[in-house]
Amino acid sequence: QVQLVESGGGLVQPGGSLRLSCTASGSTFRVYPMGWYRQAPGKQRELVATIAGTHATYYIDSVKGRFAVSRDNAKNTVYLQMNSLKPEDTAVYFCNRLAPNYASWGQGTQVTVSS
Fold it and tell me: At a CB cut-off of 8 Å and minimum separation 6, what does 87 contact?
């Protein structure tokens, strides 16, 4: 059973930066593309960014040029560098594999962008 543990969230002012980390248990981490997701209050969870085992990346339009996803397969860890944060980025952020190969969801890490 793969376990995912997210960390690095916090309260930041608009324009600030945060770096999220997600560590996965298990030996198959490097096989799977990984995604960062977020869920804002009252909204559905949405996919924000993905990174393949080849390190190819994808971003939704609203975060392009501001967010950067990376991975360290030796550490079973995926990162999300978030710059120029906006209040609309406020959400709980999760990592997971991509559909349909989801693992159990972790607790997520809260990101709050507010002055």
Answer: 14, 113, 114
Which residues, including other chains, have CB under 8 Å from residue 16's CB and lie 6 or more apart? 85, 113
| CA-only gyration radius of the chain, Å | 13
- As a whole number of angstroms, the distance between CA 2 and CA 30 comes to 13
* 70-74, Cβ contacts within 8 angstroms, sequence gap of 24 or more: 71/34, 73/29, 73/30
Structure token digits, residue 47: 């996919």
Grouping H, G, I as helix, E, B as strand and the rest as coil, residue 31 is helix
Question: 27-31: long-range contacts (C-beta < 8 A, 24 or more apart)?
Answer: 28/2, 29/73, 29/76, 30/73, 30/76
pLDDT in tens, 67-103: 999 999 999 999 999 999 999 999 999 999 998 989 9
**Strand-by-strand arrangement of the 34-39 sheet:** 10-12, 109-113, 91-97, 34-39, 46-51, 57-59
